[in-house]
Amino acid sequence: MYEKPELMKFIIDKKYEDIQQTSEFIDDIEDIYISLADIGKLESCLTFVQDIKCYNKYDEKIFLNGFIKTMNEDKYRDIGIKFKDVSGKYADFYELYNNHLNPNELNKVHIELIFKESTFGIQYSVSEYICNVEYTNNSKSCTKKFDEVLDLRETALLRKKDQKKGYFEICEGFVNIINRIQEILVLLNTIDSKGYPESINYTIDIRNGHALAYRKGIYGQKGRNLEEIIDELKRTNEIQYNELEKTYLESPISRMIYGKQFTYINNSNKNDVSSKYIFKNILKYITGNNIKYDIGRIENTPLENSLLEQMYKNVNIYLNRLFYNNNINMKSVFKNSILLDDSIRGIYIHASSEYEIEYDAICCSLSLTKNFPIGQTVLYCKSDTTEDELISFIYRSLHCHFNVLFILIKPENLRMEMKNLLVDLLKNHYSLKEMKSCLLIQYTKECKTKEIITEIEKISYYKYTDIKLKKEDNTIKQFPNVDIYSSDISGLGENYEYVYFPVGDHIDQHEILERLMKLTDKKVALHLDLSNTKQIELLREFLFSFIILKCYSKNENIFYYGNEIKIKVEIPNGFINFKSLFSIFNFFNNVNIVSFNNKNTDSNNIDPSALMVSNDITSNIQIVCNYLSNIDNINEKDIYIEGKEEDLKKKGIVKKPYDKKNVSNLIKAVPLSQDTCQKLIFQFLNIENPNYYQIESFIKIVAGQLKLLTNSWYLSADQLDYVFKLTKIPYLKQARKFFIESLLKITKHFITSSYDDIIKGQNVTYEQQQDEQTISEIGTCEKNTEEYEILEALFNSDKRKITNNIPDYKKMTPEGFLMEIRKILNLYNKLDENDPFGSQVYKGKELKYLKDIVGNYVFTEDNFVKLILISLRLRADVPVVLMGETGAGKTSLIKILAKLKCITLHVKNIHAGIEENDIIQFLNDMNLFENNNEKGKGKGKEEEVWIFLDEINTCNLLGLITEIMLKHSCKGKKIKSTIKFIAACNPYRLDTGEKEIIGLYDETKYLDRQLVYNVYPLPHSLLNYVLDFKTPDDNDIKRYISNITLETLNKLISNDSSKSNNNQF
After folding, report:
1. Which is it for strands 1026-1028 and 880-883: parallel, antiparallel or unpaired?
2. pTM for this structure?
């Protein structure tokens, strides 16, 4: 590898198949001396490189350990020799691959090989039919997926003009065969989507352009040509249409199901777990969740007819028996949609605005039935609405035997072929004379002139009436079991003990349905947490279907629930007004959570003052409140926290002996009431409209420091009193109260300053106006002030008199900063080999020198203070979001901090093109989910891991990232408690540089081009954790340069005298 580094560049981006293909042509090419054995060696080198690639994302130590581990595997024992041999023939490999393996020529060879002798296999897999082809090339077996074969077909169409003798016929024959196989696949998937009792699998043998197909599972059969198979499948499909129409006309119950749902019911005896979920939900849907008696699985009657006829017969018998045994009929299923006026029948239309169509559908239902619409009588049209779904609904609505209201919403969303089908179905099945029900077709006003609407109106015998809604006459009826939680300030009302179900960002119907299926038959309170998304229409359809209709479906898969699920919908406070976007929220119980203030007496609103207060005296809130309630006596007395040693240790508290003789010097911590705790917290926090996240951060950070104060022997009341008596240093008696009051002030400052400044700035910048956001610096106090005197007294508390001044960070050297960092982070490492303090080994582990860890990284006052702020938050389990310009040092500081603390750090770079699955896969790969490490349970506490998400606001997945960082879950799946998240984001501001633009331009579009960074505004809840990293000012930059230069000179100059001169410099 080292002798020929270009070899690594050659194989790093190659696939195994690429190398394998070279073996097909080595016998046909002159002047290249490569054997099959050489190809095998190159393949081994490639697989080795691919195996160690997975360690790229880790640091050097883990990479090297992985490299050594891979080297020691049996299959790679001689990998070094193979690399050496391959390196010697690199030129030949390069020549062969780049000059002789022309893709078109390769494709030509594969086309000819498949045409002459190959086998296609068509079989059912998971949810569709797939096809693969197998053939032989140079005595090696080759397999291609059908998508690859379709690419070869495109090549064959282009090569039909090839003048080589016989090749035109080969290409033409190849194209014809592939076209027919593709038609067979389409027919099989169509048959499957409509419901078929068994899978139809084929083997197709190709010999010199002649194709014969064999049905799998049938022995002794003769091969048939592809045209015969196509004709047979077309007849099967036609029988499906006829049998389905017959079933729908004769059996009203069967109209409730469609497509593959017939298969799920027919094959319910052999369904797997996921299919059983679907089966259960189908039965709940068609019965209106009224199944009291389980009648077991379907009984397959003796085969008297064709497979299709038998399937429809079996399903009908089963459904009728299910309804009979549970005393259900179709009228009871439709009872909430029975019209109040039985004279209303036929087809009606209604036009609504885009944002009120769901609201109007509810109003129509309330006006005509006095009830909310139900899932069995509503079809919300989408671009992926299937033919079977549409047919089922039209038969159900137009042939209903009762005076029921059916609603078809947004037919303009249908694909063109589905629009044509809808018009044909209405023409063929609508008869006002015979129709007993009412079908209301709702469309958006903007689509009044669209073809589907005009086509419906062209039907000569079509009766339509525009229902005029008088919304003011409709008393808003409240939908049961659904609450909408909102607040004027982000982060209020987050503590719900429900099944957490986030929806937002990228909305994937399959993924949502997969999560819902896991809730089948479970009694849960569902916390539906909405976040911003560009897919507003999809979200609107989901909310209407899932909450109002109590069902959600995708193709034949459906989830349906009854009263077993209660829903709590949380809508975010942000730039989008969810209540105006989703007018259906007006029908739910709306709870507006307001912020705490002394004037708030409205009992109808939930107040965050109703804090979750534990009676456990070791909990954060009890520790904080015990100190606050005794703050006037804290200089003279210590707080004593009682508990078992192991329990206290888990909470970070050192158990101290309880001296009954000196009980007068102790204050025993006691559980304080919720009312007392909330009054103390808000009294000392004392900020206007605090939100949940600010309160939580305040309690966590203050509690973390107070635990350290509790554990500290040097800062105990007795010790300070003892030192005071010895030294007579004034102010020592005030130190403890001063410490707590200062802690409260600084914590209050940095949980509010970033949020307040950025929320105002981002609101402005969201309107494309420039604003500079800053965070106040932690300043140093002046000499001769009381604050300075107290700090100076503490600093000299181990001496008889004051001899040292407080360190001046503005004059401190990088070495001095490292010594301070060692104290702050509680490190045991030596500074370097000359350091008399520290240790080289701790708990059996060898410790590196601090200077070796930081390397060329230099600490100044600027990044030292930032390190303290970050450490303080991480120590208290508070998420960290660093906002700053590119190159401000965010990533490098986090990496250095992780190295100093010997904590594993994983970095995920976020960008505009990243998708949800990329982030979820990253969390899986890093083994971050709670259930990912079952084998590791019982082996002690897991190590802390940091995850750094860089440039989070460059992507449109901020809802998911917010969930990960604040809820410690991903799509509702819990993340391990030992994982701590840090994020970095770019500021949202304009570039003020003047740029000349020639010609006319759209000013609204041009504003996006003026942004320094193309970023999305952070959710308000995430803004609470922003730490403004800001670019160092000129003085800081000068100090950086000076310190870096000094460090470099110190390393270059090795003799002591030179070092002395350099220090003077």
Report:
1. parallel
2. 0.72
